Amino acid sequence: MTLGSALILITFILLIMAGIYYVAKHKKWRLIGKITGAILLLAVLVGLGIWGWYQYQNRPQIVTGVGDVSLGMTPVEVTLAAGKPKVNLEGSEEDTDLRYIYLNYSDELDYFVRFSNESGEYRAVLICSSNYLREVLGFSKYDSESEVIKKLGEPTSISVREDGLQKTISYKQWKAGFGIEQGDVETVCATESGEVKYIKEYE
């Protein structure tokens, strides 16, 4: 304990003792009761205010991106924000979309970004991440599917991967999707269409 904090503590104790002496001498117990009641009421109001602010801050909102990457970004805006991708998958005649894949230090998916060219310029339309530090609507990797549904309600669409080992649940109204594996969130996504689907789904 520092000298400053010790002096503050001693002063606080002396003030309490002086208050007790004053009350005992002048028999002002009713005043103490009123002060205590006022302090308790103030504490309740402050607690309710903090709880309300927390609920407001964590209310569901339309998702605009994941981490440093936002929907609508061009490829160069993404590289400026996230650096050079580990894999750059160019579009083909059948599928003209462009895809960037970023891996973190432990080779987990840090970002998967899909760009579509709908107006003469590539723009990010899907961003996913399995990095536990990336949150979407307050959820990230290792949160449970039941927690997601409890907060957001039933998903607007579900897509099951071809091998039947993973699924994605999507919320069109929030432009969000979650990859679920064994009941837990594996990936979080922001999606312009409001839906995340596997290319090859379970029949």
Notes on the protein architecture:
The chain is α+β, with helices and mostly antiparallel strands and 203 residues long. It is 34% helix and 26% strand. It has four helices and ten strands; from the N terminus they run H-H-E-E-H-E-E-E-E-H-E-E-E-E. The strands form two sheets. An eight-stranded antiparallel sheet has the order 3-4-5-6-10-9-8-7. A hairpin with a 4-residue loop joins strand 8 (167-171) and strand 9. It is elongated and about 95 Å long. The termini are far apart. The mean pLDDT is 86.
Question: What Rg do the Cα atoms give?
Answer: 27 Å
Q: Report low-confidence residues grouped into runs of 5 or more.
A: none
The H/E string reads HHEEHEEEEHEEEE
Largest sheet: 8 strands, antiparallel
> Which strand order spans the largest sheet, edge to edge or round the barrel?
3-4-5-6-10-9-8-7
Topology:
Layout: H1 3-26, H2 29-57, E1 65-66, E2 69-70, H3 75-82, E3 87-89, E4 98-103, E5 109-117, E6 122-129, H4 145-152, E7 157-160, E8 167-171, E9 176-181, E10 184-191
Antiparallel strand pairs: 1-2, 3-4, 4-5, 5-6, 6-10, 7-8, 8-9, 9-10
